[in-house]
Amino acid sequence: MRRATLTNDFSWSKSRHEKFSECLRAYYLYYYRSWGGWEAEAPKDIRELYVLKKLSNRYSWAGSVVHECLRDVLLDWRSGRSVEPAEVEARARRLMQDDFRHSQKKAYWTHKYRKAFTGLVEHEYAEPVADEAWKQNWETVRQALAWFFSSRWPALARSLQPAQWLEVDAGFDFSSFTLDGVKMFAIPDFAYVDEAGAPVVVDWKTGKAREGYDEQVLGYSLYVAQRYKLPVEKVRASLVYLNEGLEQQVQVDLAALESFKARFAQSVARMRELLKDPATNTPKDASVFPMTEEVSQCVRCAFRRPCGRLEAAAQVQAQPPKVA
What CA–CA distance (Å, rounded) separates 147 from 137? Predict the structure, then answer.
């Protein structure tokens, strides 16, 4: 059977917007220059960029493990299966231990692992991370899972009838819709219909609250309303900070949605300005995608070596933290 040809089509997501805003060069390398790096015959430099773009840092890794665990738990409850919290925690710990060993050996350069995780930038760049910091990473996962199981969410999820379930972290292959002619990715962690008939979207967070999270769930609200043909003004949205034990309701009304759409349109327009051919999503020359002047941002970037910022980033890392 002939394999379908992949095309690098233009799309929009909150993470793409953030990368575009932080560093145009990283954006270019991530979404354009690394394209095709999975092919066996890919040039060495493109292959390197592709492998690097797939790496996580230890904080996002912890968050992804929590999200994977909660996805599996919710899917079990949706199917009527029982869940033992201690088994979920033990499985998460084994998963992280296996991930860590794979990454520490830098096996991601030669072996396929699991789709949701390939390796860590800390190992790729031999960053000095204390054992206590790695232990704290696991503690973040353990505490998030513990709070979830002690919260109101297990009882709520188990109480839902089959028709009330909408989605559980369906992934990029499923969770997209078209907004103003642009394909937009929006992947709610959990979406259901409550007893009053209102659709609810939920986003789990393992970090602290920061600007932009409201925008994310507004996008989820538009997606759920469009996919399930529900009135968008009836959607309710929640940000759940698992490690802080906090829930934040996000206002979903026509004013908030119109403001989101305006910012979305502006973001898309700025991205398209840097395309030589918008119809084929072909970028202009790399020179119009300059590196950020904030070298401190390079410290957490996987592209610091191909960008020639490896030494500069190391110097920033070596500086003692500022005392307020």
Answer: 16
CA-wise closest residue to 169 among 91, 77, 92, 70: 70
d(CA 133, CA 241): 21
pTM of the model: 0.92
CA pair distance 72, 168, nearest whole angstrom: 9
- Spans of all domains in the chain: 14-153+286-318, 160-252
**CA-wise closest residue to 303 among 82, 30, 2, 17:** 30
The tokens for 290 are 């300059």
DSSP string, 259-276: HHHHHHHHHHHHHHHTEE
For the four alpha carbons of 167, 153, 157 and 90, in that order, the dihedral sign comes to: positive
pLDDT digits (tens, 9 = 90+) for 132-178: 999 999 999 999 999 999 999 999 999 999 999 999 987 767 778 99
Which CATH number is 160-252 given?
3.90.320.10
Q: What is the β-pairing status of strands 236-241 and 199-205?
A: parallel
pLDDT at 142: 98
